[in-house]
Amino acid sequence: MVSAGTLHVVSTELTVGSFAMAGAAFLLAGFASHDLFGMRRHLNLADNVAHFALVFGLLAMPMAIITGIQASPGEGVDHPLLINKMLLASAAFGLAFGVLLTRRWQGMEVWSDHWGRRWQALGGMAAVGLVLTTASIGGTFTRGESLLDMFNLPYEHVPLMPMWLSGLVIVVAVTQFAMMRQNRTA
Amino acid sequence: MKRQTVLLVVLALLMTPALGSANPNGVGEGTFDAQCGGACHGDADMNASSMSVVTVLAPSVAYEGLLTSVSVSVSSIETTTSGLLGIFLLSDLSGAEDTPADDGWTIVSNSEGGTENYVEALIEAGQTEHTVTWTLRAPTEGNYALQGAIHHGSQDGSGAPFFGASLEPSLVEVRPVPEDLPRLATSFEPPTQRSVGETTTVELVTEFVDDVSVEWRLVGGEHQPVTASKTGEATWTFDLPPSLQPVVLEWRVHLTGEGPEQTTPWFQLRSQEPTWTVDEPTAYLQSVAMLLAFMAAFMSLQRRGPRDAENHTKTDAFNPGGEE
User: Fold this and answer.
1) Interstrand relation of B224-226 and B262-263 (parallel, antiparallel or unpaired)
2) What ipTM was estimated for this complex?
3) Same structural domain for residues B94 and B71?
4) CB-based contact (8 Å) between A142 and chain B?
């Protein structure tokens, strides 16, 4: 019988590995789209690797979250690290999904626009950075240390918004989606 | 559609072992009958006998309504790689209505910091013995039996549920309280938990007591006397020192009066790091808000006017249909 802890390690490695590959490919795609280091001809390859790796990472992420909850001791989120992990993972998921939807809607054109190529590469790498920070918090939670400890990140502080503000943010975001969709269909 | 089906099947297969592995992280302390602290441990067709030795240590005599102490000691411990060991205090091993409460006992505290008959202990690697002590209020006059039981998983990855129990019950005769027996009042409830760094002031309520002397110890440590002050006709207070780390401090009282001198059982006081709590609905809502906000913000950033993407989408593996 495979325990939840073992499955969590497997799914976390899948997630982090995919995101790490996506991050490197987004960096290369950024270089290629700016024609740096003579990489223009590799743009298509880097673009595909970056986005497909990101998709795979997103597919593996729910598995990592579910097994992580099953493997964690106690009930509920009773530690600031776990709350920060959840908030960072949500932000990473949203940013990565935004990057993917943008790419799907705009096609390769996303790399031809002056600012579009910068935001796409930076957005992909930022999503990867958030996931790696999330994984780092997991290491701090289970083993008490992680590679990112050198940055002294304030993992113990939980920046919680009041509930009404979160509701307002959701309303604004949903309105924004509706407006974007309206503009696309217009 | 076919791809989605395959994906769902793969995800379901990946999830199955995790969901089918009982409770590898335990079920938490609670009031459970024998073997019910994790369903499959009680199934005679599925479980296996633990090699650990379980012993119940209880006084042969207790007084009706007064506090007494009972320990379940486990030696030759076997457990899982996570180190979790479930320990029961029971009135018999029938598996139905066999908690101490079913015989009239009241659990005041246990050395793991709770008030239940089932506790889960985390066993360190190499540790072979563990003892849990319950403080109980005795039931009405009569003869009672107390049993100890354990359950745990295995380290070999077989996932077998192990169960073990004490070979002999510990028999306790509960007698009526002698008229002038120095004792703690039945209303007295000893504190069971506190935070690290916190001094604990205990207020004793006694009956037929002229003087008290209090002592405390860390488990396995030396006895330390504490001065108790009389604050009323039958009330006394004393301070237990703060602990610097999570430990179990034990204390007891020697009661002197007209009747024979009495000594209470050791009461366990567990100190823990201050617990951290958060308003979970607020955190979950913020999580959803952050997901949508980051997504909307990025897509707004990348929003541009209509353009001709046709040349790119024809050979676009990520967007094969050229969907816009």
Assistant:
1) unpaired
2) 0.89
3) yes
4) no
